[in-house]
């Protein structure tokens, strides 16, 4: 009798897996059409279209190959220390890095020149989860070991790796309460996928519990990849130019904002300027394509960096709708409000360790469910806000007093120092899996 639940679970997973397999095969023509639509909206590139169907970006090099897959910007930045550790550990190794978004791909290419051994890094877009496209991708690249980051759980891809006896790891595994509840409708399929991983690392204790509830047999490491990340890079010449442009002005940053937060930030900007008429808000949308929409809701003539426009002394808001420059704006040490956290947006937060490591005072809205562990780490240094008045009350003393701003920034930096040993540990584990 005790074997019956396990047999039912395997049967359920087989049925659901076959259903997903068949549905994705049927939808392949629709996905091709959707890729063209995404290209027209700037969500894909001409180069990404064939790669999304599993075609290669370049010849496969001889020798050992590790494959890392990161969905978008946050995951891409998080794996950079592991990427560097892999290259240092084995001078003959090549690493294939796939991303799922154009922004993630752009960030990756922006960061590659700073990586020693970057000539051994291959980049391309990940295939969509169509069996034929997954097979084409895996059969061409033949990775010795693969690693998916956070919540990239694709049934066909994971099944294809398993069928090829390719060790697969889950790095920074993330499973929210909402995701787990959604997966319960296909819990046996989730359990089969999680049980396939040769090594599972959870981002936090809470994520570890939920991943085990979902079917992961064990969690071998609980740590956040973002704890290994150094401060975001910036171009010193660009920073000098920015400092000259903004010299003498009280400046604050609203970073990685999402739809639904703009009105609150613009209202806070106006309140700050009532006390400090020359104050300037740098509003940086998470998705740069939102720049035009934000400008439409701001004062007429609000400058946009993507259009090459710089703020004048009369401007109180500057929409910095460019990609890959967050390190530049954080390097100024200005107070930073982290977006995707205020009432009105979808919520979940963004990584507060990035501005903290640059020595910026940090504030956030209350909706930080995706980054609870990071916020707990710097809890004594974060101010939580909700309304325009909350934001203004936090900002005005910092903008009025350079000493208070420097003290708050130094406290944030002290709590956010990176852990370089974490990346080395992950890299050595992946290399060991690839040799088995």
TrEMBL record:
Its main location: membrane. Keywords: Cell membrane, Lipopolysaccharide biosynthesis, Membrane, Transferase. The active site is at 75 (proton acceptor). It is found in: Cell membrane. Its EC number is 2.4.99.12. One of its GO terms (cellular component) is plasma membrane. InterPro entries: Glycos_transf_N, Glycos_transf_N_sf, Kdotransferase. Pfam families: Glycos_transf_N. It catalyses: lipid IVA (E. coli) + CMP-3-deoxy-beta-D-manno-octulosonate = alpha-Kdo-(2->6)-lipid IVA (E. coli) + CMP + H(+). GO terms for biological process: lipid A biosynthetic process; lipopolysaccharide core region biosynthetic process. Involved in lipopolysaccharide (LPS) biosynthesis. Catalyzes the transfer of 3-deoxy-D-manno-octulosonate (Kdo) residue(s) from CMP-Kdo to lipid IV(A), the tetraacyldisaccharide-1,4'-bisphosphate precursor of lipid A. This is 3-deoxy-D-manno-octulosonic acid transferase. It comes from Komagataeibacter xylinus (Gluconacetobacter xylinus).
């Amino acid at each position: 009798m005790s074997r019956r639940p396990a047999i039912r679970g395997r049967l359920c997973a087989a049925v659901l897996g076959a259903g997903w397999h068949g549905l994705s095969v049927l939808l392949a023509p629709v996905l091709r059409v959707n890729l063209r639509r995404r290209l027209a909206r700037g969500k894909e590139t001409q180069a990404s279209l064939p790669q999304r169907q599993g075609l290669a970006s370049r010849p496969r090099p001889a020798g050992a190959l590790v494959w890392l897959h990161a969905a978008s910007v946050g995951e891409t930045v998080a794996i950079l220390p592991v990427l560097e550790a892999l290259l240092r550990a084995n001078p003959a190794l090549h690493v294939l890095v796939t991303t799922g978004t154009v922004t993630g791909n752009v960030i990756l290419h922006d960061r590659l020149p700073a990586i020693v051994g970057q000539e051994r890094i291959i980049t391309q877009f990940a295939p969509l989860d169509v069996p034929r496209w997954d097979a084409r991708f895996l059969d061409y690249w033949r990775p010795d070991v693969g690693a998916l980051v956070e919540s990239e759980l694709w049934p066909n891809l994971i099944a294809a790796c398993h069928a090829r006896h390719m060790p697969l790891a889950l790095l920074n595994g993330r499973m929210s309460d909402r995701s787990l509840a959604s997966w319960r409708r296909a819990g046996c399929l989730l359990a089969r996928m999680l049980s396939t991983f040769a090594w599972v690392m959870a981002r936090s204790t809470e994520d570890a519990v939920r991943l085990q509830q979902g079917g992961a047999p064990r969690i071998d490491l609980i740590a956040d990849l973002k704890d290994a990340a150094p401060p975001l890079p910036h171009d010193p010449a660009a920073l000098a130019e920015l400092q000259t442009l903004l010299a003498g002005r009280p400046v604050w940053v609203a970073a990685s904002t999402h739809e639904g937060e703009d009105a609150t930030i613009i209202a806070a900007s106006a309140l700050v300027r009532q006390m400090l008429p020359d104050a300037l808000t740098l509003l940086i949308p998470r998705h740069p394509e939102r720049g035009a929409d934000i400008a439409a809701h701001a004062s007429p003539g609000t400058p946009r960096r993507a259009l090459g426009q710089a703020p004048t002394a009369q401007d109180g808001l500057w929409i910095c709708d460019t990609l890959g420059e967050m390190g530049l704006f954080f390097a100024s040490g200005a107070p930073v409000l982290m977006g995707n956290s205020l009432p009105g947006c979808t919520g979940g937060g963004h990584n507060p360790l990035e501005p903290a490591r640059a020595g910026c005072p940090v504030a956030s809205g209350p909706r930080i469910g995706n980054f609870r562990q990071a916020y707990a780490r710097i809890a004594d240094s974060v101010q939580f806000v909700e309304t325009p008045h909350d934001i203004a009350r936090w900002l005005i003393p910092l903008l009025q007093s350079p000493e208070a701003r420097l003290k708050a920034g130094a406290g944030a930096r002290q709590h956010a120092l990176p852990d370089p040993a974490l990346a080395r540990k992950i890299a050595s584990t992946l290399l060991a899996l690839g040799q088995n």
